[in-house]
Inverse folding.
């Protein structure tokens, strides 16, 4: 009987402890998470940035995806315009 | 003769202390002291409470060991998101001058987006002690001030991340603050 009571109390305290730990998990905050606005970062001159500064490094990490995508998009645009230019020169010949 | 004088002086002292204790207890029970947060303490009470708080924090916080890697981008990113969720409503953010909490709480929470000499509260020592002090306050809270203890629900590393962010906060522009405190994935926008 005593063993059952002790087991029950231990299980209950473990459950309470686990739930209290989960309540403050960073993932809890992700539901309404704001996305980083990297527009200011995109306009900045990268050559003038101090890459040793932890704030700059953190900004780069946060905006890396956006900046990579922008660079990919720019590259795609350049490729497309290049191919259009090639096509138009072919048609003129 | 001198023994009698000493005895009468001792009696006087005892009577004075007795009157002070009875008067103090009578004042406590009278309910005359204004407890509303919208009525500031008188200068003596404020000085007494502030001295009590700062001496108590200094005694314990100055022994805390600060991690070597405080100045890293990883800590800034982890601490920034937590600061925004848990602290910014009281301790504000760049370009934010006040909130309902800063107007209503007494004592008013310090604006941590300002440099240490602009905070409006006393400048609490050098950078090392400032970090030790912030860590202790975040972990343990401060009685009857509105500052909760985050220690029971957050481990030490997570609290140090917040301290690292608070250390860099006065240097941030509003745009940098937004980027560093956002938890979401920037690529999801596209």
């Amino acid at each position: 009987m005593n063993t059952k009571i002790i087991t029950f109390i231990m299980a209950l305290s473990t459950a309470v402890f686990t739930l209290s730990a989960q309540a403050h998990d960073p993932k809890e905050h992700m539901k309404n998470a704001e996305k980083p606005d990297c527009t200011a970062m995109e306009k900045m001159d990268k050559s003038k940035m101090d890459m040793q500064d932890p704030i700059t490094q953190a900004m780069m990490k946060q905006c890396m995806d956006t900046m990579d995508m922008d660079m990919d998009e720019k590259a795609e645009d350049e490729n497309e315009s290049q191919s259009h230019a090639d096509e138009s020169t072919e048609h003129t010949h | 003769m001198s023994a009698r004088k000493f005895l009468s002086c001792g009696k006087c002292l005892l009577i004075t202390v007795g009157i002070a204790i009875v008067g103090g207890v009578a004042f406590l029970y009278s309910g005359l002291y204004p407890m509303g947060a919208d009525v500031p303490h008188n200068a003596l009470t404020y000085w007494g409470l502030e001295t009590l708080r700062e001496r108590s924090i200094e005694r314990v916080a100055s022994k805390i060991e600060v991690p070597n890697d405080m100045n890293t981008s990883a800590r800034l990113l982890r601490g920034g998101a937590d600061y925004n969720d848990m602290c910014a409503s009281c301790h504000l953010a760049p370009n934010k001058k006040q909130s309902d909490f800063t107007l209503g709480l007494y004592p008013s929470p310090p604006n941590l987006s300002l440099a240490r000499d602009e905070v409006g509260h006393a400048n609490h020592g050098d950078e090392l002690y400032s970090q030790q002090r912030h860590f202790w306050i975040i972990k343990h809270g401060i009685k009857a001030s509105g500052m909760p203890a985050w220690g029971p629900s957050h481990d030490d590393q997570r609290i140090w991340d917040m301290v690292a962010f608070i250390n860099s906060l006065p240097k941030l522009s509003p745009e940098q603050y937004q980027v560093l405190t956002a938890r979401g994935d920037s690529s999801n926008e596209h």
